[in-house]
């Protein structure tokens, strides 16, 4: 029989950033949990983009597998005209205003998808049909879905290639969205009783100074932590740990797993957090309570 892990253990093997078919992942929540459990992790959070639809299934499978579960999601938001991702943990998925928030963002995603398709049609890519298919089969429509369609139709060699040449910044299908402000996203997570964590802080196109400003504002908005271990990017762990300590943010760790065919960020097999940072999971179970540190 398995035992529940001690959440105050800083060497705990966790994976707090995972995607399922409810956003742009390729596996069901139960299959994601199985992979994380098989890898030996003791705690996980499913963090689909702008939805909580997979949480119940993940929770049930975690209970069966003896893995600790915490509610998670990855919110899309904006800061200085750029879109950012803020993870929410340990919140109440049934908090009333949350569903309206998520529904609005998902609508923004649908509007953007149609605009991306319109631009790609000008490049003689039959993207309207792809976009319609994606919208019909997914509640959260993402560029990853479109990238996969573009690969299937031989407009790109790989998903990465589709982002580089067709969907990413500076390419014909790039459409920026004015998601809700970062501070409002933090407030939404806190309103639901949760902890806000800035996802993959080095993945945004920002100067070092702007990144520090972002972390400062994130902290001031009530942000609790930042990702320090992001997938397999081991060289980034020390610089991120230094930033977390400087801004008084707790540290999180997640693979950002989406696709079992992609070998570089397998679920549940992450580097340990450095001893210099405070693991975010030490705050779980206390979110929203006055004793929270
Ligand atoms: P969206 O949220 O619709 O803007 O799509 C963003 C998602 O696309 C991210 O969550 C990643 O899963 C994926 N993504 C972004 N950039 C890349 C890239 N260069 N290569 C592969 N996937 C990417
Ligand atoms: Mn994604
Ligand atoms: Mn992200
Ligand atoms: Mn993610």
Summary tags:
about 290 residues, alpha/beta, TIM Barrel, 2 domains, five-stranded mixed sheet, about 40% helix, about 15% strand, disordered C terminus, binds adenosine monophosphate, binds manganese (II) ion
Structural summary, described in words:
This protein is α/β, with parallel strands linked by helices. It has 2 domains: 14-100 and 180-283, Metal-dependent hydrolases (TIM Barrel), CATH 3.20.20; 108-167, no CATH class. Helix content is 38%, strand content 13%. It is built from 9 helices and 8 strands. The chain has helices at residues 29-38, 55-65, 96-121, 127-137, 143-152, 159-167, 182-191, 208-220, 237-247; strands at residues 14-15, 43-44, 68-69, 72-79, 82-89, 195-198, 225-230, 250-254. The chain has a 5-stranded mixed beta sheet with strand order 4-5-6-7-8. A 3-stranded parallel beta sheet has the order 1-2-3, covered by helices on one side. Strand 6 (195-198), helix 8 and strand 7 form a beta-alpha-beta unit. Helix 3 (96-121) runs antiparallel to helix 4 and helix 5 crosses helix 6. The longest helix is centred in the middle third of the chain and has 26 residues, at 96-121. The two termini are 33 Å apart. The chain binds adenosine monophosphate (AMP) and manganese (II) ion (3 copies). Adenosine monophosphate binds at residues 24, 49, 76, 142-144, 159-160, 163, 168, 258.
Brief sketch in words of this structure:
This protein is of the alpha/beta class and 293 residues long.
């Amino acid at each position: 029989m398995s035992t529940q892990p001690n959440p105050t253990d800083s060497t705990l093997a966790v994976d707090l950033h995972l995607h399922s078919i409810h956003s742009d992942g390729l596996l069901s929540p139960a299959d994601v949990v199985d992979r994380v459990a098989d890898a030996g992790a003791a705690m996980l959070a499913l963090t689909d983009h702008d939805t909580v639809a997979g949480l119940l299934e993940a929770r049930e499978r975690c209970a069966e597998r003896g893995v600790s579960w915490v509610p998670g999601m990855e919110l899309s938001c904006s800061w200085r005209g750029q879109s950012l991702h803020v993870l929410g943990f340990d919140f109440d998925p049934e908090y009333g205003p949350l569903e309206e928030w998520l529904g609005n963002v998902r609508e923004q995603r649908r509007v953007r998808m149609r605009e991306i398709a319109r631009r790609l049609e000008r490049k003689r890519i039959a993207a309207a049909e792809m976009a319609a298919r994606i919208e019909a089969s997914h509640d959260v429509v993402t560029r990853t879905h479109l990238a996969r369609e573009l690969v299937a139709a031989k407009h790109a060699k790989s998903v990465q290639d589709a982002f580089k040449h067709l969907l990413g910044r500076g390419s014909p299908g790039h459409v920026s969205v004015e998601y809700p402000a970062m501070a409002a996203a933090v407030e939404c997570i806190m309103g639901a009783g949760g902890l806000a964590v800035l996802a993959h802080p080095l993945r945004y196109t920002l100067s070092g100074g702007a990144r520090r400003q972002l972390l400062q504002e994130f902290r001031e908005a009530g942000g609790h932590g930042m990702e320090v271990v992001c997938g397999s990017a081991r060289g980034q762990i020390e610089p991120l740990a230094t930033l977390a300590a400087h801004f008084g943010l707790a540290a999180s760790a997640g693979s950002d797993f989406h696709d079992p065919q992609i070998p570089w960020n397998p679920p549940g097999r992450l580097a340990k957090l450095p001893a210099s940072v405070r693991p975010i999971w030490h705050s779980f179970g206390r979110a929203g309570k006055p004793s929270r540190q």
